Amino acid sequence: MIQLYKMAWRDLGRNRRRTLFSMLALGIGLGLLILMAATVAGEVRGALQTSIKLQTGHLQVRAASYNEDKTSLDFKDLIENPDALTAQIVAHPEVAVATPRLYATAIVAVGDTSTGVRLVGIDPASAASAPFKEGMVSGDYLTADDRTGVLLGRTLADKLGLQPGATVNLLVNTSNGDVDQQPFVVRGIFSTGTPSYDETTIFLPLAKAQAIARAENHASAIFILLRNQDQTNAMAQALQAPQYQVKTYIEMNALLQEFESFATTYMVMLYLIVLAITATVIINTLIMSVFERTREIGILAAMGMRGGRIMAMFIAESSLLAVGGIAMGIALGVALAGYMQTYGFFIGNVGTTGIMIGERIYAYLTMNDVITLTIMALVITMLAALYPALLAANMEPVEALHGGK
């Protein structure tokens, strides 16, 4: 076996430029696939964590009859006395923060321009509201007793041409089915780095949101963040009660889970296509080597080397090409993924809805992706060597010697 690899190494060294380019082709293909896998994994992971932080939390406790799609404000669909329930939830040691939130549909009108938004009543002082406070880009943050101020996302503010201090009319659906209209002052503008969220969400202090929606002392949900995400299912079981429904972040991000499943299937197909294309380079390299060494193969066969050993010699060459190309690919892929993981890639507002895609995509490289792609590249490269190896092994000694003249 060692002798075969010595011969394979010598044969590859006969045309170093061609050997190097063959390795580079495999390396570049594998490196790009590692980057793509890390980018998809990073985007899915980032979208999920962003959704947890901004929109769903790890858990939400709601009234048993609450329908999120309808954003119902009927008292039977809301949690009465949410502060008391929040205090009970916070008593669990696994809970990092819990806070009541009220959701309502609304329209923001400025002059002749209007747009539909989701109104969210929050406790400004809660740690769960920290992303909005930390994301302030201009103006002032809300206070719990603010009765006239509203917080707008930067994307929405830019769309409507608003600055802090501007006045907007807010039309809000109420619990009795009416629409209430009040003027508000744009207290501040925030950015979460997620344009789709910033364009469709406005914030009011919880007390004011309850007042304008006529849902005093009621909340749509208790927003919960845990100390350990792995405890989500266990905590959901602990909070179960007949009058409530407990939703986990997985259930509330079903669309993202479907996207991840689709992306995984699509990426596997893409991996195979790219690796198959790069494998053709290996095939061409070995076929050219077979024709260049026809007379040599005939001499080896005439001296008694069996076809299986000749075949093994070309497979050994292919394995060396694979190892060299894979090493280059891993180095390239890890370097590119590392850069993307640190600095990301700015994509701006892509206009997606339902998935919390930020302005910048970050990669997230996992050892599982590297190992999977490495094995796929190795297997496909070795399979690609079979045809040239069989071609060499099936040569008749006399014809091979004649062909070498």
List keywords for this structure.
405 residues; alpha+beta; 2 domains; 6-stranded mixed β-barrel; elongated
Description of the molecule:
By secondary structure, this protein is α+β, with helices and mostly antiparallel strands. The protein folds into two domains: 2-51 and 256-403, no CATH class; 65-241, no CATH class. The protein is built from 15 helices and 14 strands. The mean pLDDT is 86.
- Counting helices, strands and paired strands, the structural category is alpha+beta
From the alpha-carbon coordinates, what is the Rg to the nearest angstrom?
31 Å
Shape: elongated
As residue ranges, the low-confidence spans are none
- Work out the number of β strands: 14
